[in-house]
Structures are given as C-alpha cells and as structure tokens.
Amino acid sequence: MAQSRGTTRVGYENKNGQVNIRPLGIPGTDHGQSLYHLNCTHCGFDYAANGSDTHLRKCPRCQGGNPSTGGWTPD
Ligand SMILES: [Zn+2]
C-alpha cells in the first residue's frame, strides 16, 4: 500500500514554502523516522528533515531554521 500521509507526500509544501522533494531512504534522527529532501521555494536551498518535521520546517538559510537533519547535503 502506498503511504499517503499528507506531510510526507512528494510535492507537499508547508506554510513556510518548504517543498518535500523526495524520501531519502535513510533513517532520521527521531525514533521511527526517515529523512526527506526538502527544498526552499524562497532561496532554493536543499536540506533534509525528519518526516515528522516536514510540516513545520523553516529554511536553514533564509528563515533561521535548524541545520539539515543528520548533516545531509545534496552533493
Ligand atoms: Zn530559503
């Protein structure tokens, strides 16, 4: 069955303009979580966040949000 929880859906955009690009397939830093690649619609910054945080994430670069979870970078 496909996972359909809204905030971990690819293409989901939260109120801060942060878009869920794709699941990264690597474990997150919270229990039972996995990481998702988020992209900022304001400045284009790429970073990772736990699935449970996608709905409230702020951009680390232009909104003063927390650094990329797990130190993930797109390179
Ligand atoms: Zn940004």
What does this structure look like?
With 75 residues, the protein is mostly beta strands. The chain has one domain (6-63). It contains no helices and three strands. The chain has strands at 18-27, 34-40, 46-50. Strands 1-2-3 form a three-stranded antiparallel beta sheet, with no helix packed on it. The protein is globular. Bound molecules: zinc ion. Zinc ion is lined by residues 40, 42-43, 45, 59, 61-63.
Strand line-up of the largest beta sheet? 1-2-3
Order of helices and strands: EEE
Uncertain residue ranges? none
| Cα distance spanning the termini | 31 Å
Count of folded domains: 1
Ligands: zinc ion
The general outline is globular
Helices, by number, come to 0
Report the average pLDDT across residues: 93
Number of strands: 3
Please give the largest β-sheet. 3 strands, antiparallel
- Report the β-strand fraction as a percent range: 25-35%
Question: Can you give the helix content as a percent range?
Answer: under 10%
Look at the helices and sheets and give the structural class.
mainly beta
Radius of gyration: 11 Å
